[in-house]
Amino acid sequence: MAAAAWEFHLPLVPTDLLRDSGPGRYVVQDILPARELPPALTAFRAAFRAQGALAVLQHFDPVYSLLHHFQAVGIAVKEDTLELMMQVASHHSNELPAILGDSGLSHADRTAHLNTLKMNCYLLAGLVDAFEMETCRNGLLEVDPGGKNKKNRTKTSGSVWEEEREPLLRLLMQLLQLDLRQLWGGLVVEEEFVSLVTGSCYRILENPSIGLQKYRATRETVTRLLAMALNHYDHQFNATLKITQMLQHFEHVASVFAQAVSLWATEYGLKSLVGELLREIGQKCPEDSAREVSGMKGYAIFISELAEQIPALMLSNISVLLCHLDGENYMMRNAILAAMAEVLVQVLNGDQLEEAARGTRDQFLNILQAHVCDINGFVRSRVLQLFTRIVQCKALPLTQFQSVVSLAVGRLKDKSVVVVKNAIQLLAAFLSNNPFSCKLSCTDLAEPLKKEVQKLQEMRNHSRSASAPAIAPEEEWEAMLPEVRAATQQLFQPLQEEEEEVLEVEETVESTLKQITGLLRKLNYKSAARLTQKALCRFQGKEPFSGLTEENEEATILGVLKRLYTGSCPGENSEDSPHINSNPKTADIVPEEQPQTELIKQEMLVQYLQDAYNFSVKITEALSLISKMMYENCVLVVQEAIEFFVTVSQFGMPQALLGVRRMLPLIWSKEPGIKEAVLNAYRRLYLSTSGDSERARAQNLVDSVSLIMVDASLGTIQCLEEILSEFVQADEIKPAVIQLLWERFTEKSQCSELERRAAVMLLGMMARGKPEIIGSNLDVLVTVGLSDKVCEDYCLAQEVCNAISKLAGNPKPALGKNSAPFRLPQDHMLFGCLREAVSKGFAQPDGHWIPFMEAAIKLIYHLAEGAEEICAHILQVCAQQALEKLQEADGPENTDPGVSPSRVSGASSLPTFLLMHLVSLVGQVALQHVAYLEVSVSAELRRRRLLREQEKNKKHPNSSAKKQRPQSTGNETTMEEELGLVGASADDTEAELIRSICETELLDGKHLFSAVVPLVLKICNNPGLYSDSALSAAAALALGKVCMISSEFCDSHLRLLFTMMEKSTLPAVRSNLIIAAGDLAIRFPNLLEPWTSHLYARLRDPCPSARQTAALVMTHLILKDMVKVKGQVSEMAALLIDPEEAVMGVAQNFFSELSKKGNAIYNLLPDIISRLSDPDCGIEEESFHAIMRHLFSYITKDKQTESLVEKLCQRFRTARTERQYRDLSHCLTLLPLSERGLHKLQDNFDCFADKLQDPAVYSCFQTVLARFRRAGSKPETKVLAEELEQKLSASRNRGLDSAETCQEGSQSPVPESAKQKPTGSSRRQPLSTANRDEDFVTPQPRALRNHKRTQKRPPPKKAVIVFSSDEENSSEDELLGKLEEETPTKTTPITRSSVSRLR
């Protein structure tokens, strides 16, 4: 077919070219087989060389055939074809400018070149599609580990196509730059041709890897090519549809198209395309967006990024998107809100906005604030992020500050962790960018605000008084005129008699004028007009009442009234009138403008201070909320809370110090991120201090850290010590800081006593990281801190002892290290000073001596060689002083030589403080001596044994262990080998040696303790005789410490210790003994096990501090598995509602830690529920609900939930009171019921069916089903829920009917247990401290108790409902046996006089 005889029509699908669609259309004659393609393409190349670009007219079919067989053709053929077609198209593109410029171009030539252009572009577009499809397919195959050969081949093909893709696009762009309309006869280029070229661009953009940085040039070429089609080939409509379609199906193109559309709008003037695209997206149904999540995500990314690049255009078109704010797709809401934020930051920002722009800005801010409370957590989080950016860019007007801050504070209680995190970030941004002040203390702002408000009120009062004459009388008259005219017109109506009688004209004109003027001033216009009318009749011809005319009497009256009011008429007031009228018109105008300006400034100042104060109040409110978040489980929230307090501290808010202290314990966190955040916070707060010199920076650091230690607890000091030691080890503490601390301690630098004490504490903290800080100046510490002036400040001496103790280091050396511990000789100056200080202060009534003495004794045992001798000497000297005081007090009455001077029977005549010092000293020496033996001596024995073994091995390096044993005879035999001390048995023997020393030697008659311990026991046994509270507390603590020595002594005095714990009226005594009992439970667990119930009983102590101490002790014992967790743990659960926040916090921490120990809480829950729901327990229902809400929050596993549902249902069978029914049903509402849980409820329906007549029980089950339905479930499960609901309703109705029947019949006798009403008060009753002697018993050994229980078991006095734990499914007899085991059966009172009451 001749070239001019046909026309190439672009097909919709490739197969259209195979069908004859009509005369004059090109049809592919034959599809060549794949093997014939190489020679056909060679012929095409030869023809191209001979004929040029028009050769494609005869060789179109081979290339078409290659596209048809593209998968089967080799890579080389594909690459040759691509190269050939690009050469053909490029050659034709170079020829076309001359051809298009030829005005004499024939129709046949124009048709031939048009067909050539179409064919070239069609084949190039086909190659683009084929190569792109192959690239995507091979990209998916690359994940196949077995397709290595395919991968290698794909690399080669893909790399060639990636290299040729951009040149091909430039070639197509070169073609579109020509005036191609000439080939279509000057008409519009056909749409199919434009779609063919742009389709290749869109096909390339579909490749997910197009967004990579290495393809940036390709993306830019595609963008320019599409811009040319949009500008010159009317492609806008198709582009809108195609872009929206691709955004819906290809998420990765959102960023590409956002950049492209931004470029088209700014550089190519295609701003209308932005509106079309946004309108097309806005017309998507919001209901459909909930189903098409992936499509909406592409739209959301496109909108967000487009708003960042062209916010002004987004502002003019954003209205079409607002419908999606009410849709269900949260990503679209986020995108539109982000677009609004970008507009606010980049367009609607500043004070120079027009009124319409301000309205739009406020509308956008209101929309953003509304979505802070969006139903979706991601939207709430995103809005808070957007507000953070708005605040950081200073785009939030001051009028909106308070509302946004309030919303942020409210979101701190959000259930979503991400929302809370972003709320904290927003508040931190508010602080960092607040326009008010660098110091935001409420107290600092309240006083200036009060003063300025008072000043403003005075200025307003002055302004009102001064501005009164500023209004001209003429202006006032004009304002009054309508009312005066109305009153005058009423004169011509019938008058009332009363009014006629009241008004009388005065004798003279002057008095009448005054009368009329007064009426006008009183706003009595009608009477003034009537009086004027009468005066006109009476004083005719006299001014100002002359000129009355019948025709216009009303105007005459008004004229007279005006002259009188404005003061322009003659009379008494005429002299004043010029002065009055001249005020607003003369030089007084300028002075009055000045006060008005000052008033406006003052109002602005007051408003500014009020806003700053309100802002500070909100931030203070946020501080208390955020400080509680530092111990959340989420690391992100904790890190944000720490960062927030760092920011707050920089703005001088006094409450920030509480947060800075509160974050200190986080230094022990197991999360590395949290620990590092704490270190960074303190590094920024204290190490990065400002100052002109190194000395000034050191001064600021020391002052700031010292402020933390004011009134700080021991725990806070330990945390701060850990942080400072970390800084010292990292060499972040400058030498100037340490130098300043030494100067303060030695008083070379002027400072107070508190600052001097803080300097010693800081030196001790830093010495933990580098002991040489103290070691190099030990003599200075001793001579200055423990010199003759030690009696003046025992607190300083105590801190000096604590600082020196850092030299001791870890008493237990690391594995593999056998270096000797650091010890000072017995005659060192340090111990001489300590002996002198303790002995001298013993006889002085100083309240700080005991803490100093304890620190000194501890230091001696840590550092001294022969510490026991030093302490024995101190104890002997102090006891001698006490005896001397005793002899002085007794006088000549005790001169009988037969009386031993060491007796203690007359000790009551000693001063109280001296007794207190003596027993405290005994207790401290006893405790430290035990610790010295158990830790230091034990470690030293082991170290020496290992050294001997190492030396022995060095002597026989080539001998095996088997050969050494027979050779170890004669002189080489060591003591250890004779005793058989090898391996682990040596450690056991050493421990047994130390134990025997404690049991047999320390408390025998040869030791000093034996002389003073009877005094401690006498004080404890005679609380009436020794009634001083401090002495009783010291004696109780000393008793606990002495009990640590020997198990025999402890066992014989446990009854005394626990009796004092129960009966003492002094909270300090009870607290001390609780702590002592906790330590004894760790040292002698078998002895303390029978007394566990008495420890639990202290959780109901009436004193909050004692309850807190008991809770802390029990927490440590239970978590360390030193106390068996029994049903009595319900006492700890009851503390979750304690009125004291500190006690409640301990209980919460206990259960939080217990929840980490496997299924501990799950196993304990049934017993806790049974005990707390017992009416005798005294727990209110509301309190029970609060406790259960906390405990059930730890039940997170589905299996635990299902099992608890079944167990709670089973408990309905054994429950006896309505209160227990209600409590059990309430617990079911706290469980997140799953499908399997619902089946459990259905299976155990008979357990609770008869309890449903109780409205509260029935309501709880209704709540369970309603929550299950809200959670959404399968249709078959919903049927099960409906069936269960019907059964609930039917059982309830049957129960109500049977109840009515019972009421009609005779009443059956009620069981005694059911008649009993709970006698407990509404709150849990604490234990009374005034118990009887019979209440305290000494438990018998387990074997004897078990023997007696098997012989005789007393029957229960009343029916007691006791529920066993889930692991122990024991019978009722076993339960009663356990109760007997826990309850001692023999009373052993303290005093001998009560023996007669024994049974």
From TrEMBL:
Residues 1069-1228 form the Condensin complex subunit 1 C-terminal domain. Residues 1375-1384 have a biased composition (Basic and acidic residues). Gene3D superfamilies: Leucine-rich Repeat Variant. Its main location: nucleus. It is found in: Chromosome; Cytoplasm; Nucleus. It holds the Pfam family Cnd1. Residues 953-965, 1344-1356 have a biased composition (Basic residues). Keywords: Cell cycle, Cell division, Chromosome, Cytoplasm, DNA condensation, Mitosis, Nucleus, Phosphoprotein. GO terms for cellular component: condensed chromosome, centromeric region; condensin complex; cytoplasm; nucleus. Residues 1365-1374 have a biased composition (Acidic residues). This is Condensin complex subunit 1. The lineage of its organism: Eukaryota, Metazoa, Chordata, Craniata, Vertebrata.
